[in-house]
Amino acid sequence: MSRLGSFLLFTFASAGLILTIAFKGQLLNAVRGKLPELETLRLENKSLELERDRLAKTQAPVSRNRLTLKPADVYSTYPANNRKLAKISLGSEDGIAPMMSVLAAPEILFGYVTEVFPHYSIVRTVNDPEFKVPVRFEGVQGEGLFEGGSVPHVRLIDKKLLVQGGERIYSASYQFPYGMKIGTVGALTESTDSYFKEAEVALDFAPSALVRVYVIVDYVPKP
To answer: Domain check: are 102 and 211 in the same one?
Structure first.
């Protein structure tokens, strides 16, 4: 290569290096110029997160498919630990009425209101043997009868029904908004007759650990 060619090649390479350095410098300056704006956005995002957490803890009703859930605290029964009936911190002065559905969490059934007083109410829970409701299964077309207790069961399941452990169980009675989750199928056993089988139910929550529930205040079934 001639001296002129080498010189031109060196000149072009040097020019390219200078342009690269200049571009990087401009990019760095641009980023530095955006730092205050980025910091502002970060602070705004943090503020929104704090507001979200605050609203999550509020007593304001929450809408669920046009139904309104009103949060209530669960009174402790320690050390008795009565799981059949629960007392909650809402009463008639809060718009609570008998037969209103009570949820352990949105869409997870806990029980229903049986008695109402001005500032608190009593709830029959899914752990009460008197709690009975027709149910359906997630994976198969069939029904059973849920019966509460310390170990809840679904009874009167057709023996021909291919119900398997782990399948979700939903309420199917007009007493509650349709499709409330109750739990999942546990151990299956044959009943004493030749037509039905039954299954234990694993609840979706720990009753003794429940400190807050949700009352559906705009769905009140009539007998």
So the answer is: yes
Whether 223 maps to a domain, the answer reads: no
Instruction: Please report whether residue 164 resides in a domain.
Output: yes
Indicate the pLDDT class of residue 4, thresholds 50, 70 and 90. very low
- Say yes or no: 15 and 116 in one domain: no
pLDDT tens by residue, 180-208: 999 999 998 887 777 899 999 999 998 88
Pair 75, 89: CB distance under 8 Å: yes
Backbone angles phi, psi at 163, to 5 degrees: -85, 135
Q: Tell me what pLDDT residue 68 has.
A: 92
CB of 142 within 8 A of CB of 127? no
Q: Which two tokens stand for residue 197?
A: 């089988």
Q: In angstroms, rounded to a whole number, what is the distance separating the alpha carbons of residues 141 and 153?
A: 18
Distances (CA, A) of 183 to 201, 213, 221: 6, 16, 22
Q: Cα angle at 211 between 208 and 216, to 5 degrees? A: 110
Q: Please name the amino acid found at residue 50.
A: L
Say which residues have a Cβ less than 8 Å from residue 185's Cβ, sequence separation at least 6.
137, 154, 163, 164, 165, 166, 167, 168, 169, 199, 200, 201, 202
CB 81 within 8 A of CB 116: no
Nearest to 152 by CA among 122, 177, 193, 187: 187
Instruction: Give residue-wise pLDDT tens across range 71-102.
Output: 999 998 877 777 899 999 999 999 999 999 99
